[in-house]
UniProtKB/TrEMBL annotation, chain A:
Species: Acetohalobium arabaticum (strain ATCC 49924 / DSM 5501 / Z-7288)
Gene coding for it: glmS
EC numbers on record: 5.4.99.1
GO biological process: anaerobic L-glutamate catabolic process; L-glutamate catabolic process via L-citramalate
Name of this protein: Glutamate mutase sigma subunit
GO molecular function: cobalamin binding; metal ion binding; methylaspartate mutase activity
Catalytic function, reaction form: (2S,3S)-3-methyl-L-aspartate = L-glutamate
Residues involved in adenosylcob(III)alamin binding: S13, D14, V15, H16, A17, S61, S62, L63, N93, L94, V95, V96, G97
Source organism superkingdom: Bacteria
Residue ranges the record marks as coiled coil: none
Keyword Metal-binding listed: yes
Lineage: Bacteria, Bacillati, Bacillota, Clostridia, Halanaerobiales
TrEMBL record, chain B:
Organism: Acetohalobium arabaticum (strain ATCC 49924 / DSM 5501 / Z-7288)
Protease is among the record's keywords: no
InterPro entries attached to this UniProt entry: Cbl-dep_enz_cat, Glu_mut_E, Glu_mut_E_C_dom_sf
Protein name from the UniProt record: Glutamate mutase epsilon subunit
Top enzyme class: isomerase
CDD domains to which the protein is assigned, alphabetical: Glm_e
């Protein structure tokens, strides 16, 4: 497959590092060029990394419940930076407390994310989706 | 300022104190003399060290949840519920993640949004923003001791405010709240900042006030071998005791194999008594954390994990256990789910309170191995510091002699790879630069080769990934997916 670059990281004041490492491993194994900006990543770092590397997608993780506040305005900032077409995914424990998944998903779709993943998603799923969204033929 | 494991003079402490109390406007409400007076009037049932001493004496395991929300009234309601409906013996206030990074402005915005939305937008209690008076409102509304639980590399102002606010226990340490909780903060810096916290507590002790200290045992919470977390716990215990801390609870996070976990709890206490022997009037207790890694989504399965942790805590005779909830896989739990985790834990603990795991060869072998490994690590730490444990610790992390698996900190070598053996005990697939003897290295190799053989594969990183997912997917050992 042709080289596609993705930027991934854990947004905000979140320090969950284990899944981040596993995701990197899984996406690399699936053939992607992975720029992993790690934990404690502000919106700007995702966007700067994507601009610098001419990335095809940004994958945002949030495990600690503040995702709703941390992701606010993310899409708009991408557009300002000239990344209006970049593919945007978000996943994890995105809100505080156990809430119905559908409204949470809707909320993040409304915020401009292309796909939203619930907790416990195995890496295979976003990998398959990303291949589809980026038009990668195997 | 040069880092040394040496008790700070009161002058040096007070000089830095002036800066610390100016980090956020609520700092100016801290008045040490008045706080001593306040603590002197606290009922004994609200003093953590007293409760822990009693539990240790009576050989019972106390239960404590994690919990915290953005607003004061809701926070009080939550803790009352956990006390009454969950039968919690000890109460927490879990601090939100913005406060942990000293982002008090974002915490303020979170408080505002929580008011507007009518639900907590923060994953914990922003104690610094709320200030001393609000902390006391929380303390006074309850009848159990309160502990601050967080994950803050620079926790100096938080300590000043919460301790003046009547909290009697403070979690964390310069390693356990740096390596798993920060990316770019040097170890030297957090050790200094935590010497400040320990010196503050030493200052309280000098004034007759008992404040308990608890290094955070589980570190990254994922397949951390006992000797790795024990080394960190003992170093933080030593650093705290040097600054005058008198009541210390050392922690360990459940790995999942009963024999290894009980051996870990017993060896932790025995090792700590040995290493802290020079500090005569220190009271040591232990805390066991129910499984800190990924949980099953299904609540019934989650109760299985919780109960197994409860059983291990009871059989290992931990002084207290920190409970998980059936919502763990989804993040922050509701108060009802939190209370359910507590009640199921209490049921198991009460059933097992008169039982213990009988000594047997396997238990003794595990204990011996954990002790050997921990001593080999700590010997090298002292050597690297020419006898100074603080300086040795900084150099040991540089050299990978101290190393924590899956940690975000760039000051951590990150060479370790743990994996489960055929019985589910956590072993070293790669021990990095840990200064282990050949005997120890071979022991781990043999255990993992045996598992590889029974699974028909070479032990490798895939095995580690399988183990990380295993409990969430319904088992302990990550067998190959067929």
């Amino acid at each position: 497959m042709e080289d596609k670059t993705i930027v991934m990281g854990v947004i905000g004041s979140d320090v969950h590092a284990v899944g981040n490492r596993i995701l990197q491993e899984a996406f690399e194994k699936a053939g992607f060029e992975v720029i992993n900006i790690g934990v404690l990543a502000p919106q700007e770092d995702f966007i700067n990394a994507a601009v610098e590397t001419d990335a095809d997608a940004i994958l945002v993780s949030s495990l600690y419940g503040h995702g709703e506040m941390d992701c606010k305005g993310f899409k708009e900032k991408c557009v300002e930076a000239g990344l209006e077409d970049i593919v945007l995914y978000v996943g994890g424990n995105l809100v505080v407390g156990k809430q119905d998944w559908e409204p949470v998903k809707e909320k993040f779709l409304d915020m401009g994310f292309d796909r939203v993943y619930p907790p416990g998603t195995l890496p295979e799923e976003p990998i398959a989706d990303l291949k589809e969204d980026l038009g990668i033929e195997e | 300022m040069e880092l040394k494991n040496e008790k700070w003079s009161l002058d040096k402490f007070k000089e830095i104190r002036e800066e610390v109390l100016q980090q956020w406007p609520t700092g100016k409400d801290v008045d040490f003399e008045e706080a001593i007076e306040y603590h002197n009037n606290l009922p004994e049932e609200q003093i953590m060290a007293e409760k822990l001493a009693e539990a240790k004496e009576e050989d019972v395991t106390l239960i404590q949840p994690r919990a915290g929300v953005a607003l004061i009234d809701e926070h009080i309601e939550l803790l009352k519920f956990l006390r009454e409906e969950g039968q919690a013996d000890l109460l927490p206030s879990t601090i939100d993640s913005y406060t942990r990074q000293n982002n008090y402005e974002e915490a303020e915005a979170g408080i505002e949004e929580s008011r507007e939305e009518g639900r907590s937008m923060l994953n914990g209690f922003p104690a610094v923003n709320h200030g001393v008076k609000a902390c006391r409102e929380v303390v006074e509304a309850l009848d159990a001791p309160l502990q601050v639980r967080h994950g803050t590399p620079d926790a100096r102002l938080l300590a000043e405010i919460t301790l003046a606010g009547g909290f009697t226990d403070y979690e964390g340490g310069g390693l356990s709240y740096n390596i798993p909780y920060a990316k770019n903060v040097s170890i030297e810096q957090t050790l200094l900042d935590w010497q400040y916290v320990d010196r503050l507590i030493g200052y309280y002790e000098e004034n007759g006030i008992k404040i308990n200290r608890e290094p955070f045992g589980p570190l990254t919470g994922t397949l951390v071998p006992p000797s790795v977390s024990h080394s960190v716990a003992i170093i933080e215990g030593l650093l705290a005791a040097e600054q005058g801390v008198k009541n210390i609870t050392l922690g360990y996070g459940q790995c999942g194999n009963l024999v290894q976990d009980v051996a870990a709890l017993q060896s932790l206490e025995e090792l700590a008594e040995e290493y802290l022997a020079d500090y005569e009037d220190v009271m040591l207790t232990t805390v066991f954390h129910q499984w800190m890694g990924g949980f099953p989504q299904d609540e019934a399965q989650a109760f299985g994990v919780i109960s197994w942790g409860a059983a291990t805590a009871a059989l290992g005779k931990a002084t207290k256990v920190i409970t998980k909830t059936p919502h763990e896989a989804m993040g922050v739990p509701t108060k009802e789910a939190n209370a359910e985790g507590l009640r199921s834990t209490k049921q198991v603990i009460n059933m097992l309170r008169d039982q213990s795991l009988l000594s047997n060869d396997k238990l003794e072998e595990e204990k011996e191995m954990i002790k050997q490994e921990t001593k080999q690590i700590l010997d090298r730490v002292f050597e690297l510091g020419n006898g100074d444990v603080a300086q040795g610790t900084v150099r040991a992390f540089e050299a990978g002699v101290l190393d924590v698996p899956f940690a975000p900190s760039k000051y951590n070598a990150g060479n370790l790879l743990p994996a489960r053996d055929d019985d589910g005990a956590v072993r070293f697939l790669n021990h990095g630069n840990l200064p282990f003897s050949d005997e120890v290295v071979e022991f781990h190799q043999e255990k993992l080769e045996a598992r590889g053989k029974s699974e028909g594969r070479e032990p490798n990183f895939q095995m580690v990934i399988d183990d990380i997912y295993a409990i969430g997917k319904g088992r302990l050992v990550g067998r190959p997916r067929s």
